[in-house]
Amino acid sequence: MNSDVWSPVDVTGWTLLGVQQTGTSTSQWLEEPGTPTRWLHKDTMIPNNRVEQGEDWSEVVSTQVARTLGVPCAETRMCVRNGRRGSISRNVVPTAYSLYSGATVLQLASAPGY
Fold it and tell me: 26-54, pLDDT tens digit by residue?
């Protein structure tokens, strides 16, 4: 894959591994061709005013700020899938482990308010 984080990657031909419902949007797990690397793909939002939002570039900006500050974070890239802008985030979960949202963990722990 091109190492320039500001150049969108065309992920149209990447293998779809599954769908993940996250918050108000649906994300897709994709596999990078020729590797076992999984990436979470999200389309940009297009609200009723038909103005495409900037979640793609804001994901990359956030990653670059985190790296500059020394904060561990997933690699992110802007992308295009089927002609639509989006972003991909590299899977950071080690093999044989599962990732749960903080809200899920708090709910399972019977934390007050969850």
Answer: 799 999 999 999 999 999 888 888 887 88
Nearest partner of 37 among 87, 85, 75, 83, judged by Cα: 75
Judged by DSSP in three states, 112 sits in coil
Dihedral over Cα of 87, 52, 71, 101: its sign: negative
Assess contact for 2 and 8: CB atoms under 8 A.
no
DSSP calls for 10-57: E-TTSEEEEEEEETTEEEEEEE-TTS--EEEEEEPP--TT-----HHH
Domain boundaries, given as residue ranges, for the chain: 9-108
CATH architecture of 9-108: 2-Layer Sandwich (3.30)
